[in-house]
Amino acid sequence: MCDCGNNKNQDILVPHVGIITDITQETPDVKTFRVNAPGGGKLFEHMPGQCAMVCVPGVGEGMFSITSSPTNKEYMEFSIKRCGLLTEYLHGLSVGDEITVRGPYGNHFPVETELKGKNLLFIAGGIGLAPLRSVINYCIDNRQDYGTIDILYGSRSADDLVKLKEIKEKWMNTEGVNVYLTIDREQEGWDGHVGFVPAYLKEIDFSTDKIGLICGPPIMIKFVLQGMKELGFTDDQVYTTLELRMKCGVGKCGRCNIGSKYVCKDGPVFRFDQIEEMPDEY
Amino acid sequence: MPMNEENKEFRPLIVAFCCNWCSYAGADLAGSSRLSYPADVKIIRVPCSGRVNPMFILRAFERGADGVIICGCHPGDCHYSTGNYYARRRMALLFSMLEYIGVENGRTRVEWCSAAEGAKFSKTMNEFCEKIKSLGENVRLGDLRCKN
Amino acid sequence: MQELINRLKELIADGTVVRAIGWKKGDMPYNPEPAYFEKPEDFDNFVYDGFCGANLSKMMIEAAKLEGKTAVCLKPCDTYSFNQLIREHRVNRENTYIIGVGCRGKLDIEKARKEGIKGIKSIAGVDIEGDGDVTFDTIYGEKKMAYKDLMLDRCHVCKGKDHVIFDEVIGESKDTADADRFEEVIKIEKMTPEERFAFFKSELSKCIRCNACRNVCPACSCRKCVFDNTKFDSQQKANVDSFEEKMFHIIRAFHVAGRCTDCGECSRVCPEGIPLHLFNRKFIKDIDTFYGEFQAGKDPEAQSPLTDFTFDDLEPKDAVGRGDK
Amino acid sequence: MYSIAKENLNSLYAAIAGSYDLFMPIKTAGQTNYGFWKEGAEGDIDTLKTIRSGKDAFFPQVEQLYTVNREIVPADVAAGDDAEKAADTPVRTKLKVTPGKLVDQDFVIFGMRACDVRAIEVMDNVFLTDPVDSYYKSRREHGIVVALACHEPEESCFCTVFGVDPADPSKAKADVATWMIDGKLYWKALTEKGEALTAKVADLFEQEDADAKVEEEKSYIEGIAKQLPNAELSLEGWGAGKTDEKFKSEVWDKVYKGCLGCGTCTFVCPTCQCYDIKDYTTKDGIQRYRCWDSCMYSDFTLMAGGQNRQTQLQRFRQRFMHKLVYYPTNNDGMFMCVGCGRCVEKCPQSLNIVKVIKAFAENK
Question: Is the CB of C309 less than 8 angstroms away from the CB of B144?
């Protein structure tokens, strides 16, 4: 076993070896991987919203958001949707297999500053819950530091809702946390809300004394933002996280920039008024 | 190829692209007829000799092969009627090009070998293997990174 | 040149074409760029002189998809490439108006640089007509070179002064061939394998894999190149040793074998001056020898040798070992 | 000041190569590129511009980052492996990461022109800012730069536009400045590293009071530089904070059309530093390396779900915006171009940064 996981002197591009200690099939195409250092414990500490480069050597490397909360001191989790070469391969791995991980990269949701003491509104679609889950759990674990927490989460179908168990057992049972679930189409066995997230958002008619955190498919983000504006939210009240092709993760390889901002270094978390200032290239 | 103390003899790595309809069966027949051919030959089954892309051959060399042989049906006997005719033209041009850039002649070969010719298959492989042994290790087409 | 400009303006004015593809004056006397011309004032910067070497036929792949007809200026050798593109159904002939432009050989500024000519302020004698020497006015004094000595290598093996496809021809052309097309190939074939290998190794070790040779090639018109396939691990942008460059260049030449018209663009654009045409020409020579003479692009109906066969073709084992006996 | 006759340069190269790796312009197959000098190599410092810039010295085209060795082991149910899954997939992959070796020996980069030396500063701002790239850093720490004045600048040069002085390499951040005047190389150490190098080869040099001669050469070069066609190129309108106005300009649509989407400009450029990280599977481990990449390539930003710069116009714009706007925005107004003019000479379609700047000036 190599000790590179603990070597602090090596280059930022050289990864840590991580071992998969648990795999949960969340939905038909999403799995959550629990990753530990080979000797146990976490590979590194991170803040909610930060990302890491997960790599299967010989197959590829990709940027994934760390879905577990920093308050989890035992392991890190990545929720990964199967959609390409690397993710396909990752889905074929078993507990006990090793992968490499490097990070953490990027900025994080301002949980210690702008968000502190505020009422929060999380809006997620599909696998977009992954980056937000880290923040939600962080806020729930530090419940006293935040106001009310509203979580609006939608997905294509009931089977595609990620982390349903945690949502039901933990989030729904925490005081001051309201969870609103919705699915796109009617389905047998589903007695909750049916409809798209932006529409549901308007139905619920959230008051604007909140800070919004959005993540989901680009089209959803677009319409949610519209909906929020109609409700009276302003751009500087809403945060989201972006994703572009990345290789280095440290703002040097030169591909994930939007204007002069690098998503991997200056992002992935941006406030909407910051996004408005960037050139239209994402 | 590593050459340690006990094993000084050069063992070439040979990749054989064998057509599913003829020489692949020919290799089978060679096996069931207890005809031997060197274990250095690694067979890759292809649906037709016409499936062999020049890039397959170059990549095989790059990844450490010392010789590459393509076996297909005899002209006129192609399962898909004409695949081997096209292959014949392509390989003629490719082999000529390899010679042109300075690769030793004989590292590549095309042989037509039917499903009934187990003996020919085994003989061809033995011959080819001897030829590659005499040429030695493939230096010119290999990749440095695959060389330890 | 004025005649050409007038005619293009006329074609646009009378609605025959919507736009023209030609060359725009550069900021140096030797670097005109391929460009689109639509409005009369665009033609203020139109230029056609000895440095307009670029083969514009590949631009027609995109241009012929645009709304309305496009006029394109093609030199005699470029028309072969265009024909080949028609053969492969990559351009829409209906949407193209071909103006065959005259050519007396195109020039290579690198040839002047090799002669130590630098600090160029202006160049005279490169017009499309005339046959005098080329005069360079430089910061370091005036320099002269014969037009012929400044020509691109490909022009010394010119395919002839005739356009093989056109709607109209403007200007005179000259056959500038003064060397045998296969001379260099034969010279290499006569070397020993060791010499050949050393030659290609030193040439190809310069390759920086910029892909200019591929991107400029009118025959390389695949929508997605095999070397751009991210799932293929030989999609290498650079390599530890020179082998992969060999593979890239062999495959590049192989993919256009039988379709390459020998337009010489690959060698022209190579920033490292690698004689890439030596690969293409070897294939052409072999095809000629093995399967009979064939000039791609001459006849848009002709079957390419690699998509054709005869029952008694040469066996691959007989294709080698012919040279160094 | 030290001097050495031009015909003795080979012995100087040999002397330097005796103590250091010597990286310098070498002529092979008719072209001059940087390479490691060894006995018999044809050193060529007369050619003003090597085709590839000197950036290879610190940021080579290919660089080994680390090797991963895979070991396939049987699933170990006793150690916590799920028994059911272990029956299904009985083997597990174990990995071992071995970082690539950092440069730990001093080496000399000889004959770098002032523009290329400035380009090192440009790259420093990328690689040496937090988080520091240790591969680059180790090369920077061990590299000794011997800069050479440009005796005869060429028409494609426009370095003075960016404040680079082709006449006086001692103004650049080099360790040694040299001038080639009348068949003699004049040598002036500028830093401690430069002094150390000088000490090692000092017995080849003559001591000569040549300050006047060097001054004369400098004013000669400056005189030439003023006459160059692009000496007066104006950068007005470019620089930090100009993102909005330039990005939305319609001029891009006019200037990009001829672009082939090849990587020539990026690969010959001394300041282009974008890279890709790739795997190469061999028999003994997966080698992960980084190599130059080009923003002009169609796969540069390609993702499973599409990409953000899909057209050549966007990619073309990205390159020049990066050089003239984005980089200055992030680096106190410093441009990411040094005016070396390689793209001016090498672009297959004759498009280049000068044409872009001029097109914007004309279409204001």
Answer: no
Of C179, C208, C233, the position where a domain reaches its end is C179
Q: Is C187 on the interface with D (CB under 8 A)?
A: no
CATH code reported for the domain at A4-105 = 2.40.30.10
- B and A make contact (3+ CB pairs below 8 Å): no
- Which spans in C171-310 are helix H? 183-189, 193-204, 212-216, 243-255, 265-269, 277-291
Distant-in-sequence, close-in-space partners of B117: CB < 8 Å, separation ≥ 6: B26, B29
Interface check for B99 against chain C (CB to CB < 8 A): the answer is yes
- Judged by 3 or more CB pairs under 8 A, whether D touches C is yes
From chain D, the residues in CB contact with A57 under 8 A are 68, 70, 95, 279, 286, 288
The answer to whether residues C220 and C272 belong to one domain is yes
Distance from CA of D6 to the nearest CA of C (A): 19
How far apart CA D302 and CA D299 sit, in angstroms, is 5
Chains with ≥3 CB–CB distances under 8 Å to D: A, B, C
* Pairing state between β D31-36 and D143-148: unpaired
Task: Report d(CA D349, CA D353) in Å as an integer.
Answer: 13
pTM of the model: 0.89
- Alpha-carbon torsion A197, A199, A203, A206, what sign? positive
Give, in order, the Cα–Cα distances in Å from C296 to each of B87, C219, D203, D331: 20, 10, 63, 53
Confidence of residue D93 (pLDDT cuts 50, 70, 90): confident
Q: Do residues D346 and D265 make contact, with C-beta atoms less than 8 angstroms apart?
A: yes
Of D209, D109, D104, D218, the residue nearest D153 (C-alpha): D218
CA distance B89 to C258: 11
Residue pair A252/D127 in contact (Cβ under 8 Å)? The answer is: yes
Reply yes or no on whether the pLDDT at C8 is more than 80: yes
Range of the domain at C247: 181-325
Q: Which residues of chain B have pLDDT under 70?
A: 1-8, 143-148
All residues of chain D having their beta carbon less than 8 Å from the beta carbon of residue A40 are none
Q: Please tell me which residue of chain D has the smallest CA distance to C200.
A: D29
Q: Pick the closest to residue C62 from D313, D348, A280, D264 (CA basis).
A: D313
Distance CA C51, CA C197 (A): 34
Q: Is the pLDDT of residue D231 over 60?
A: yes
C128 occurs within a structural domain: no
ipTM of the modeled complex: 0.87
Which residues from chain B sit within 8 angstroms of residue D280, using beta carbons? 145
How distant is the Cα of A266 from the closest Cα of chain D, in angstroms?
A: 11
Distance from CA of D268 to the nearest CA of A (A): 17
Residues C80 and C1 in one domain: yes
CB spacing of C233 vs D279 below 8 angstroms = yes
| Chain A to chain D Cβ contacts (< 8 Å) | 149
DSSP alpha helix (H) spans, B63-146: 83-100, 118-135
SS3 state at D88: helix
- The per-residue pLDDT for A8 is 45
- Tell me the pLDDT of chain C averaged across its residues: 89
pLDDT band at C33, cuts 50/70/90? very high
| Domains contained in chain C, number | 2
How confident is the model over D253-312, as pLDDT tens digits? 888 988 998 989 999 999 999 998 888 887 778 888 888 888 888 888 877 666 678 888
Q: Helix C243-255 and helix C277-291: axis angle, to 10°?
A: 50
CATH 3.40.50.80 fits A119-241, yes or no: yes
Q: Considering its fold, how many domains does chain B have in total?
A: 1
Residues spanned by the domain of B18 = 14-146
Q: Do both C169 and C194 map to the same domain?
A: no
SS3 D202: helix
Q: Do C250 and B142 touch (CB under 8 A)?
A: no
- Residue B104 within a domain: yes
- Inform me whether the C-beta atom of residue A258 falls under 8 Å from chain D C-beta atoms: yes
